[in-house]
Design goal:
By secondary structure, the protein is α+β, with helices and mostly antiparallel strands. It has two domains: 249 residues, 4-Layer Sandwich (Glutamine Phosphoribosylpyrophosphate, subunit 1, domain 1); 184 residues, Rossmann fold (3-Layer(aba) Sandwich), CATH 3.40.50.2020. Helix content is 28%, strand content 24%. The chain is built from 18 helices and 23 strands. It binds adenosine monophosphate. Adenosine monophosphate binds next to α13.
């Protein structure tokens, strides 16, 4: 394991209601009438990437129209009035998921701004690691920020760029930016998509007839029966306009570091990412775990839904029967988004129930994708024991999450991560299981198709190793840690 990085606790994490640490989903379409309706459908397919707010900006040949709201896509983009206000054959949409219950409408994306060259809408998935530092400089030179979103930093950099063509201005802006970002931008004439040079966050290209689509995951193509063309490559900028799709790679080539946690937990299992089916990867992790951490038991029980594919893989490999010994209530949001510990505990109880008839007297192997704070595991184990299980073992389809993610996956600060405070046996005792094991790092890499983890790793796995491939500039600079909270008044939504 790597040494603890020497930077202060992340100032945004856990406390700041305007936290820019978002997990997000992107969808953009060029060249099809009713673009906004298709965008809303795509956003619905991406709802797992962000449940807190959503927005669409559409261009109707004359002007940009936008609708942005707190809440689920199905609740906000379902009325004829809203959709009729979003006419046009080009649109970009965004779903967002942040840590806090208090989300200001000003931070809901896509952000839209007027530039010298016309309007531009921008949607972002990821997290910039030098947004504070840049913001400070931009404010010093007179820029006025309307939101606390790091996406706005990119917008200001585009505005002050001295280049004339949009694409040059975007490239210039991004040459100042560090972090993980997949972006979709829309001007009056073009849809533009790009990924950072390490390709940490996903972005794929699709086609529907003559129309082009850019989106975070292929499940958003499937929902509208569009065809998957390919992934946008790390460091690539694709531009779609009346001449079709063109591509440039203006940035220095860097090693690809796609986020391995997308395979473990975050992406939808039916999506294909970098040519790999996510469900197949999760099943392979389960099979690897069955080989690495075999134990005799009567049942494999997933913690639904996140543990299901790995549990199936474990069961197939070990020949121990798979049963739904825990039932999930789907009408509760992810426990993770609840703001306080008290509610988080309550959330877990609301969400899962033991299927006692199947657990009584059984030796049970519980499978989940990750342990973060340990809240879910603790409650579930207690529940399974109360239902009469004779033994409870736990297998986790990721290595211990010991470090925070600074590249766009919401994780608490290190002090709250169970694996950064306890060793394996302490975790086992704390959760109350008879045995606890995590997939090994090489086992994980094997499951996603590599021979082993290289010293120069093929993926970003910083949440497990603490090896951060992109500088964490803001986190080393303690000068003005609250700069992003300039707009500190409560909701202005
Ligand atoms: P915890 O209860 O804090 O240990 O969180 C672990 C549970 O949260 C697991 O069931 C995971 O499926 C889920 N989880 C892991 N990472 C995230 C995340 N970034 N956002 C939401 N849920 C997560």
């Amino acid at each position: 394991m790597a040494e603890t990085p020497k930077f202060p606790a992340h100032p945004y994490l856990g406390s700041n209601p305007d936290s820019p640490k978002d997990e997000c989903g992107l969808f953009g379409i060029y060249g099809m009438s009713d673009a906004a309706t298709l965008t809303a459908l795509g956003m619905h397919a991406l709802q797992h990437r962000g449940q807190e707010s959503g927005g669409i900006v559409a261009f109707d040949e004359n002007q940009f129209n936008s609708h942005r709201a707190i809440g689920l896509v199905g609740d906000n983009f379902n009325s004829p009035e809203v959709m009729q206000g979003l006419n046009g054959s080009m649109a970009v949409g965004h779903v967002r998921y942040s840590t806090s219950g208090d989300t200001a409408l000003r931070n809901v994306q896509p952000l839209f701004s007027e530039f010298k060259f016309g309007g531009l809408a921008m949607a972002h998935n990821g997290n910039l690691t030098n947004a504070y530092t840049l913001r400070k400089k931009l404010i010093d030179r007179g820029c006025i920020f309307q939101s606390t979103s790091d996406t706005e930093t990119i917008i200001h950099l585009i505005a002050i760029s001295e280049y004339s063509r949009v694409i040059e201005r975007i490239t210039d802006a991004l040459s100042h930016v560090e972090g993980a970002y997949s972006l979709i931008a829309m001007t009056q004439k073009k849809l533009i998509g790009l990924r950072d040079s390490h390709g940490v966050r996903p972005l794929v290209i699709g086609k529907l007839g003559d129309a082009y689509i850019l989106t975070s995951e292929t499940c958003a193509l499937d929902i509208i029966d569009a065809e998957y063309v390919r992934d946008v490559e790390p460091g690539e900028i694709v531009m779609i306009d009346e001449d079709g799709l063109t591509s440039v790679k203006p940035f220095k080539k860097r090693p690809s570091r796609f986020c391995i946690f997308e395979y473990i937990y975050f992406a939808r299992p039916d999506s294909v990412m970098e040519d790999k089916n996510v469900y197949a990867c999760r099943k392979s992790i389960g099979a690897e775990m069955a080989r690495e951490h075999a134990i005799d038991a009567d049942l494999i029980v997933p913690i639904p839904d996140s543990g299901v594919p790995a549990a199936i893989g474990y069961s197939e490999e070990s020949k121990i029967p798979f049963e739904l010994g825990i039932i999930r209530n789907h009408y509760v949001g992810r426990t993770f988004i609840e703001p306080s510990d008290q509610i988080r505990h309550l959330g877990v109880r609301l969400k899962h129930n033991a299927n006692a008839a199947y657990l009584k007297g059984k030796r049970v192997i519980l499978v989940d994708d990750s342990i973060v704070r340990g809240t879910t595991s603790l409650k579930i184990v207690e529940m399974v024991r109360n239902a009469g299980a004779s033994e409870v073992h736990m297998r986790i389809s990721s290595p211990p999450t010991a470090y925070s993610c600074f590249y766009g996956i919401d994780t608490p600060e290190r002090s709250q991560l169970m694996a950064s405070n306890m060793n394996l046996d302490e975790m086992r005792k704390h959760i109350g299981v008879d045995s606890l094991a995590f997939i090994s790092m090489d086992g994980l890499y094997r499951a996603v198709g590599e021979l082993k983890r290289n010293d120069d790793p093929q993926y970003c796995d910083a949440c497990f190793t603490g090896e951060y491939p992109i500088p964490l500039t803001d986190h080393q600079d303690q000068a003005e840690p609250n700069l992003l909270t300039l707009l500190k008044e409560p909701n202005i939504s």
